[in-house]
Amino acid sequence: MKLNTLLLASAACMAVAAPMDLAYAQGATKDKKEKKAKHKASFPNMTVKEVQQAIEDGKVTIIDVNSPKSYQSGHVPGAIHWAAVKSKLAEALPEDKSALILAYCSGPN
Asked: Are residues 31 and 54 in the same domain?
């Protein structure tokens, strides 16, 4: 008898907790989506033409985050290799905190 009462009470608690967890998860997902959208908006994409123009105008610091082997086999002219400067990155970046900094990699492979 006590076991049945305990199981029934546990089931009732789960029935109440599950919708609360779902509401919390949905709220957390909404917050995460809003945060991601806001973050994405603060880092706009650039076209190849815009990047080329910024390089020509000397208005961009480019960081290559590929492996050393990949960097040695070819990189954007003037790009700083991340692995070579990571311990002193602040020194390699412009002092102007509003300066354009572009980081790139070839992808996960």
From this structure: no
Residues 10 and 31 placed together within one structural domain of the fold = yes
Q: Is residue 109 part of a domain?
A: no
Rg of the chain over Cα atoms, rounded to whole angstroms, equals: 25
Partners of residue 81 on adjacent β-strands: 64
107: left (phi over 0), alpha (psi -120 to 50) or beta: left
Is the sign of the CA dihedral 33, 39, 42, 43 positive or negative? negative
Q: Which domain holds residue 57?
A: 48-104
Contact 8, 15 (CB under 8 A): no
> What's residue 34's pLDDT?
76
Do 36 and 1 lie in one domain? The reply is yes
How confident is the model over 82-106, as pLDDT tens digits?
999 999 999 999 999 888 999 988 8
Q: How do residues 26-73 score in pLDDT, each as one tens digit? A: 566 677 777 766 666 677 788 989 989 999 999 999 999 999 999 999
Instruction: Tell me how many domains the chain contains.
Output: 2
